[in-house]
């Protein structure tokens, strides 16, 4: 499919629909749920009722061959609020893992269970990071051992910083099945609802995205059926054999490659919200007898903010199109999009606080919350340093360390 920047009618309607929900439902609730630091179940239910949260929504966005529908929707949702946006979209990372590694049968069986329904919405969790294995995925200690006699996998270990960890119905967990292969010896598994041995910690207190539940997850000899191995045993055995011969792919990295443009779009939504608020404030805030936007220092800062947001969006859209159309990220284009968008979000929200001055430091104005929410985008799903590592390896062909 050709790459085209003009949105078609369906994409424009999607943007307007999600924007309307973000404006009328998400924004009015944002400060409350940030303060409460709780999952906003009533907002999730409203999203489910209108079809914004659910399997069908993801199917519809993924059916767009341009790859742009999901970034468009994410940008508008996170324009509403980062914390509530993550509460609504956090399930999609687990779904991306199922989509990226699972069979069609696993996709049909498990993805609907990730969401529940409008009467009783559920959430899902993707568990990959560990206390000593964040950026260094090769150091993963969580183990999965296969018992052929019972056709069961037994998982033991600990995961850290899992979105929806412990409160999810469906957990997708990455674990090492062959430690000698490092990151290449890992696989992804479905842990069904109610499985014994899985426990989440208390909700972790965070700088930002406070409405989104984050917790550590513990796996104490968790037994799951053999059918819960994403992709199946035969495919795993073939992949391990290729890994022993020098292949480099692993389950966690496949998920992150698919999700990076969508995560970048989230960061852009937060940045755009802060820019728009600062722009309107600068037009009405009077100092020395005139609106502060008439000062070049302010006007130029706003011009730079808008330029950086637009530049980041173009990188995100390119990567989303490439991913959807199976174009190889030969220069780390997926990482480029997430890296740029995350750093733009941090810079733009910080500048928005600065433009508001003392008012920007108060919770009375949302830029304070946006500033806190933005910082995670240079940390999770690959730090900025890791994104640069991915890009440098791609452009050099060398194993840069």
Structure description:
The chain is α+β, with helices and mostly antiparallel strands and 401 residues long. The protein has helices spanning 9-36, 41-49, 55-62, 69-80, 82-89, 91-101, 104-115, 233-244, 251-284, 296-324, 333-356, 367-374, 384-396, and strands at 124-127, 143-147, 152-163, 170-176, 186-191, 198-200, 214-225, 286-287, 290-291. Helix 9 (251-284) packs parallel to helix 11 (333-356).
- The proportion of strand residues reads 5-15%
Reading the helices and strands in chain order gives HHHHHHHEEEEEEEHHEEHHHH
Structural class: alpha+beta
Oligomer: single chain
Gap between N and C termini: 36 Å
Task: Please state the average pLDDT score.
Answer: 94
Number of helices: 13
Number of strands: 9
Shape: globular
Rounded to the nearest angstrom, the radius of gyration is: 21 Å
- Spatial order of the strands in the main sheet? 2-3-7-6
Uncertain stretches of 5 or more adjacent residues: none
